[in-house]
Specification:
Blueprint lengths: L1 H6 L3 H29 L3 H6 L11 H7 L4 H32 L5 H13 L2 H14 L6 H25 L3 H9 L4 H12 L1 H17 L2 H6 L8 H6 L9 H34 L3
Helix pairs in contact: 2-14, 4-14, 5-8, 5-11, 6-8, 8-11, 8-14, 9-10, 11-14
Length: 281
């Protein structure tokens, strides 16, 4: 489609279009390039050499980060927390979204709105009641306690997004399966979910990204260094008024790799999912 649209443009319009694309690419890639170059410099080079130049690249910051700082443990914690929260949230959201879209019962419209309102509630208003709940459940300073708290924002978002995807799947497919003897749950898992797979992938990517980047709840509910997630570990790289920019940028680069890889591998499904959720059939 993009090729066809470009062929319809005049030469001057093509030049303008490509110039805008190049400018957009520079604006997007420049912060990444800047972050990468600073992470490969010593503290002396960061302040003495222009940041765009890379005269003497070194992996010293990465060695210290993954070695003495134990950042690999923080990466593992974030993978466990974000991955578990994504799987649990998407599973619960599939059942909730299917119920709100396909079943008919009193108050389901208001339930759907309340789910959205719960997601829009600021986390700063929730961490006190969440702290009380986590304390009574004796899940403080644990990864599974952090997973439980992440469901408070992951599940409402996943449910609201999946409702849009499920509405675009014709109900005739499920009805035909149930006529052939399938139960409603079998119709959900064997018919609806495979058809809505791009939407599930898109929701999973958004949920994982939100859990991976979350800082406030992780900072409140984890205290031990071996339990810290990546955002909290990056926060603790700043000691007082000392900013070791090389170490901080190295941590940012390492933290960005899993999310960038996830988006790269699932970009086709994310685009399909966004298109499916935006067009109502």
């Amino acid at each position: 489609m993009e090729q066809t649209m470009l062929h319809k443009l005049s030469p001057s319009q093509k030049v303008l279009a490509y110039a805008c694309l190049v400018l957009l690419a520079i604006l997007i890639l420049f912060p990444i390039y800047y972050m990468l170059t600073v992470s490969l410099k010593t503290n002396r080079d960061i302040y003495r050499v222009p940041s765009l130049l890379l005269p003497n690249p070194t992996l010293m910051n990465y060695v210290e980060l993954l070695g003495r700082r134990g950042f690999a443990v923080n990466m593992r914690n974030s993978l466990i927390v974000a991955g578990s929260a994504t799987v649990i949230s998407v599973f619960i959201s599939c059942l909730a979204a299917y119920s709100l879209v396909r079943l008919r019962y009193r108050g389901r419209t208001w339930i759907g709105r309340l789910i959205l309102f719960s997601y829009l509630t600021p986390a700063s208003l929730l961490f006190i009641p969440l702290a009380v709940i986590i304390n009574r459940l004796q899940m403080g300073n644990t990864l599974h306690g952090l997973i439980f708290t992440y469901l408070t924002f992951a599940a409402p978002l996943s449910t609201w997004l999946l409702m849009g995807f499920f509405r675009n799947v014709p109900v005739d497919l499920e009805e035909q399966a149930m006529v052939d003897g399938a139960t409603r749950l079998q119709a959900l898992f064997r018919i609806l979910l495979p058809v809505a797979a791009p939407g599930l992938v898109a929701v999973s990517v958004f949920t994982f990204t939100g859990a991976w980047n979350e800082l406030l709840l992780a900072l409140i509910f984890t205290t031990s260094p071996e339990i810290r997630t990546v955002p909290v570990a990056l926060q603790y790289l700043i000691t007082g008024d000392v900013f070791r920019w090389g170490l901080i940028m190295a941590g940012a680069v390492v933290a960005a790799v899993p999310v960038m890889t996830l988006y790269y591998l699932s970009q086709r499904f994310v685009v399909q999912g966004l298109a499916a959720g935006a067009v109502k059939t």
